[in-house]
Design a protein that fits this description.
The complex is a heterodimer.
Chain A: E1 5-7, E2 10-13, E3 19-24, E4 31-38, E5 42-50, E6 53-56, E7 65-71, E8 74-79, E9 88-95, E10 104-105, E11 109-113
Parallel strand pairs in A: 2-11
Antiparallel strand pairs in A: 1-3, 3-8, 4-5, 4-9, 5-6, 7-8, 9-10, 9-11
Chain B: E1 4-6, E2 9-13, E3 18-24, E4 29-37, E5 43-50, E6 55-58, E7 61-66, E8 71-76, E9 85-93, E10 99-101, E11 105-110
Parallel strand pairs in B: 2-11
Antiparallel strand pairs in B: 1-3, 3-8, 4-5, 4-9, 6-7, 7-8, 9-10, 9-11
Classes of the chains: A mainly beta, B mainly beta.
Chain lengths: 114, 111
């Protein structure tokens, strides 16, 4: 398996633009998580899905952030409009329910908003 | 509620043992995890332990769990420069799919 695949690896955009981050989970995994990592706040859970259904989006910072999972093999995290304080590394992770092996993380998308 | 705490930084000399500590608050934890994050990379699972175990050893890694004190540790024997990274502990409670992560401990290995 190729693991959790995120795209793009790096994104530089201007303030006010829409940004879409993409994630392909491991085939067969039924839980998907979006995290944000910054120096100041560490690793923050933004939202997670079980069987394509959003379960907890309490970590989504503002209405500017939205996430979708239209099918079991694809998820997007969208920021519209983007702001400089959204600059961070965004990670996607997937897991097989409550299997003991926990999460598998993608390599992340480094977002810079200028 | 769930809360997982770690010290922020640890420096050790190459060849020495490293011990990274973690405390958690939820007594219903079922599994506890250690993840490693190298610069520019995602988190990689190192090892995990079931909550009814006290210890787990995997080559240079030893995990100790004190469930009474809600304390988890990761010992790395013969620490190498390649072990320099951020180490996160995490807990899973019950049958939930979600993990709660600590703040991460940055391990610096000096020559």
């Amino acid at each position: 398996d190729a693991g959790v695949i995120q795209s793009p690896r790096h994104e530089v955009t201007e303030m006010g633009q829409e940004v879409t981050l993409r994630c392909k989970p491991i085939s067969g995994h039924n839980s998907l998580f979006w995290y944000r990592q910054t120096m100041m706040r560490g690793l923050e859970l933004l939202i997670y899905f079980n069987n394509n259904v959003p379960i907890d989006d309490s970590g989504m910072p503002e209405d500017r952030f939205s996430a979708k999972m239209p099918n079991a093999s694809f998820s997007t995290l969208k920021i519209q409009p983007s702001e400089p304080r959204d600059s961070a590394v965004y990670f996607c992770a997937s897991s097989l329910g409550s299997a003991p092996q926990g999460y598998t993380f993608g390599s992340g998308t480094r977002l810079t908003v200028v | 509620g769930e809360d997982v705490e770690q010290s922020l930084f640890l420096s050790v000399r190459e060849g020495d043992s490293s011990v990274i500590n973690c405390t958690y608050t939820d007594s219903s934890s079922t599994y506890l995890y250690w993840y490693k994050q190298e610069p520019g990379a995602g988190l990689q699972l190192l090892t995990y332990i079931f909550s009814n175990m006290d210890m787990k050893q995997d080559q240079r890694l030893t995990v100790l769990l004190n469930k009474k004190d809600k304390h988890l540790s990761l010992r790395i024997a013969d620490t190498q420069t390649g072990d320099s990274a951020i180490y996160f502990c995490a807990e899973r409670t019950g049958t939930a799919s979600k993990l709660t992560f600590g703040t991460g401990t940055r391990l610096q290995v000096t020559l």
